[in-house]
Amino acid sequence: xxxxxxxxxxxxxxxxxxxxxxxxxxxxxxxxxxxxxxxxxxxxxxxxxxxxxxxxxxxxxxxxxxxxxxxxxxxxxxxxxxxxxxxxxxxxxxxxxxxxxxxxxxxxxxxxxxxxxxxxxxxxxxxxxxxxxxxxxxxxxxxxxxx
Length: 147
What we know:
Strand content: 25-35%
Largest sheet: 7 strands, antiparallel
Low-confidence stretches: none
Oligomer: single chain
Helix content: 40-55%
C-alpha cells in the first residue's frame, strides 16, 4: 500500500454567499438614506441623493446574489489558487495586507497579470471547521513568507 502524503493533497475551501453581509449592506444603505433625508439640503437634492443610494444598493445586492460560490485551493505543490463557480483555478499570491480575525477574513491577493483583488469572507459564508482551517492555512502561509 502506497504511503499517503497529506501535504501533497490540496485543500479546497468553499466560500458561499453570506447572509450577514447582505443584511449589513441593506442596513448601512438604509442608514445612509435616513441621513440623506434628515440633512438640510433642498428636497430635490435629498431625493437625488436617496435615489443614488438606492441604485448603489441594488447594484451591490445584484452582485452579491449572483455570486454562488468561490473556491480557494491550497496545496504545497501549486500554492494558493482561486476560482469562481464553474471557472478554472488560477494561481494567486496572498498579500501581506490580508486581515485575519475570528469573525472575518479580508483576503488580499494578486493573480498573475491582473491588478490586486480582495475577497471579504465572513464566518457564516463557510462551514465553521473550514473557516478555522482557512485561518490556520493563511497564518502558516504568512509565517513561511516571513522566514
